[in-house]
Amino acid sequence: MKIHHASWLSFAMVVITSNVQAANPLADSPLMHPPVGPLVGPYVAPEEPKYNYAEVLHKSYLFYHAQKSGVLPYQRMAWRSDSCKVCVGDFGEDLSRGWYEAANTMKWGLPLGWTVTQLAFNIMMFEDSMNSVDELAEGLELLKWGADFITNAHYNDTYIVGQLGTSAIGPISKQIELDVDFNYWGPPEEYEEWVPTGLPHKAYYISPDNPSSEIVGEYSAALAAVSIPWRRHNATYADILVDHAKRLYKFASDNPGSYVSSRHNAFQWATFWYPSTRYEDELAWSAAWLYAATKDNYYLDEAKKWYAKCSDSWTEYSWDEKGGALHVLLYAITKDGHFYKNAMNYFNQFLPGSPTQVVKFTPRGLAYIEHWGSVGYSGNVAFLMLAFAKSIGYGTDEGKAMTTFATQQINYALGDYGYSWVVGFGDNYPSKPYHKSSYNSYIDYPMRGTFQDKVEGDFTESKTNQRFILYGAVEGGPNIDDTWYDDRSNYEYSEVTQDYNAAWSGAIAGLIDFYGSQKFEPFTDCGLDLGWSHANASEPPAWPEDDCYHTCNKGCPRGEMKSSYAWKLLTEPPEKMHEQLEVLYPGQGLSKAAALEGKTLADLKAIGIKLNANDTDSVSGDAISASAQTEVKSSDTSKTISITLFTYAVMAIAVYAVNL
Hints:
There is one protein chain. The protein has 22 helices and 7 strands. The chain is an all-alpha fold. The protein has 3 domains: 1-68 and 348-435 and 470-523, Glycosyltransferase, CATH 1.50.10.10; 70-165 and 201-319, Glycosyltransferase (Alpha/alpha barrel), CATH 1.50.10; 572-628, no CATH class. The strands form 3 sheets. It has a 3-stranded antiparallel sheet with strand order 1-2-5, sandwiched between helices. It has a two-stranded antiparallel ribbon with strand order 3-4. It has a two-stranded antiparallel ribbon with strand order 6-7. Helix 9 runs parallel beside helix 11 (323-334). It is globular. Mean pLDDT is 88; it is low at 1-23 and 616-660.
């Protein structure tokens, strides 16, 4: 059983009673049943799109803004702002960017790296269709945000950050721990004030003495993959990514090993939550992406070498298992019949009617690959089938079977049976996703200053719906009989994660491509409740008239990146960034630009940028955490000190107990 994200309090009995959750739900939490009855007969895919897949893709990308870490260039939603205020590595590297995993405020290297790789894979396969519905600029922006974390994590060729943040403290061998991040239930923006033990986000390193070929290999794959769509827009940036990717691949292959064998406590806990099956598939994955990015036959030979050593990686496709995707990727970039044959053998495990089908389906047609994250896993395979179908032709018999499978899986999750597994899509969608910041936001945190155990109790046991809509998040999924619980205590159903949405987004783009992008109008933020009407919300960005992505503006040319003003923020020279931000935040452009670059206004003055009269040097401190200085009221400070002292006392007792 793969364990993901849970608190140590709620997890204490999981190993003993792993199947008890459904039998012992939260009091008065009803077992939910789909409003529509089971499938009768073989599934027949609609000839015309049943759902607005452009809307789904837009909202799926929006979810990544809810997960963003670091100093934000702009606020997409009122309830998320700057965070990861003390995310600095041992060597001074800025580790603030990227996304938080699930409901936590941590970054585990393997799932984060895979998310970046997969988001790039989506664009590689379906770029034109994404551009046609005006989502390409958004996709490229997200890729850079994730790649920024990885390039900074690659401090040098000896020390590479494999994890940021501390889930728990204590010996894994005795499974006695004091939770740190896992017992924080407030908004990321206030992590440093209220986290138990007072520990900031600490960086944990991969090195020759503490190897992890899967984490470093995935980092390499991610940067090589991101370089491909970015090259046509910024070749210099793409070259930097490829250079990192090559060096990371060399490190991963020269220092073979897995973090599951690490003696470091942080990676031992990572193994507990995110166990890696093997690392050979990540090395094949890395080399294959390097070949795709460089066309250097050395990397193709390396990919084939490692591919041959991971022949048993044929089950799920996820942050852990890359086998199925290797067949698809290698066929797409080589058209080698060997990879075609292996891809067909892989897919026949899922396709109904195949003599080698092994995957079971729920009564309403969900391919049930894993209980935990069942919708996400089926979406991963749906992406692979759509990508492969495009490579061999949608009109072939094999292509038709795969597009039918993919359509069935995606439409199941979008509401074919009366319930949407995507938050904020459709009329009947999850009301209580297991997600902390959309429940306890920095602008609406009723239990601020309360002991975290009490905050946890309210979060998990309350019947209160999320205070803000977590648009686009794909929830875990149902039981094998299509039933589920819609509450935060049963988090195997209600959990949301960055990796669930990664290949899912690609599958949605694939359906846009399959049906024809001309059948979909670009979707925008117009009419979405992003929290700006909340009493504690700041002023929203002042999007200009020529932005049709974040606004209700009309008349922008379709299929051109400039319809999103955010694209200008990505492509303008750094010395002009303050001018672009001044449009969004009048009177604050320079201070926003300084914060984004980890500088003070004095730094900008030093390089010759003239300050306006309205600009104040409100950004102070060191280069990395400059924008993150937050004034805390004295009463809050005293509460923080009290809680910290209390948790240190608990930690001391726990350590004493461990050593008895």
